[in-house]
Amino acid sequence: xxxxxxxxxxxxxxxxxxxxxxxxxxxxxxxxxxxxxxxxxxxxxxxxxxxxxxxxxxxxxxxxxxxxxxxxxxxxxxxxxxxxxxxxxxxxxxxxxxxxxxxxxxxxxxxxxxxxxxxxxxxxxxxxxxxxxxxxxxxxxxxxxxxxxxxxxxxxxxxxxxxxxxxxxxxxxxxxxxxxxxxxxxxxxxxxxxxxxxxxxxxxxxxxxxxxxxxxxxxxxxxxxxxxxxxxxxxxxxxxxxxxxxxxxxxxxxxxxxxxxxxxxxxxxxxxxxxxxxxxxxxxxxxxxxxxxxxxxxxxxxxxxxxxxxxxxxxxxxx
Length: 319
Fold this sequence. Notes:
This is Helicase C-terminal domain-containing protein. The chain is mainly alpha-helical. It is built from eleven helices and six strands.
């Protein structure tokens, strides 16, 4: 509350020992959860009094369904293990990472990050798609290119390490935030998806808390433009010629579309520069007018060179 926030003498909330330090890794968060839940028995409704026959029958039916669901999940997990991981045994079984992942999966918990073994990372994805995982701690790698049946996405922090070798952290960009937040809500199954921001309780205090300005930028900021990463060079052209792939393939690429737009914009600038050059020729003869004519001519030549490069690259031939 506001009163607690303003009071300097208010005692700090008690934090569980497993959460006394900020988790540095998705696997750490998953292991923390497993340790917290290790001594907790699965929740069961209290058995009603035997005198209430209707309630007792309903309770027994619910218990049978629950036990049946548990046995079904165990069988599905065994079948998936035989299909996807058995071929890598016994070498895979000797790894601590394998034992940790399997122990977590048996509890319905998992973690997912780019540093995992690819076969284990893919196995976690398959288990999550089959609804065998109820809680997964993940980095943004889980949100890229994979359709995951998530109903709720929880952010424990809204920053990430800086790109490259630059130390420190930076806030998430709008596209990065929505790429992860957009996983909340399964198409055709959920009417609503829930996105929760729960900053990590740790010794870092409010350092993990995003400011209102950062939140507004993530939610309403401008999305970056899509930029093609296709590099059209001589080896690229030679490979396509060797495979008998014509220019029509490049016509459907984002690179070609951006180059066409660039060529159209440059053509418009050339026409404006040529009009300015003609106006300079028709004007009075002076040093200033001559300088403007030379500048306009240079601009025309530069734009024409760019236009030729754009046209060549859009057809798959670069100088």
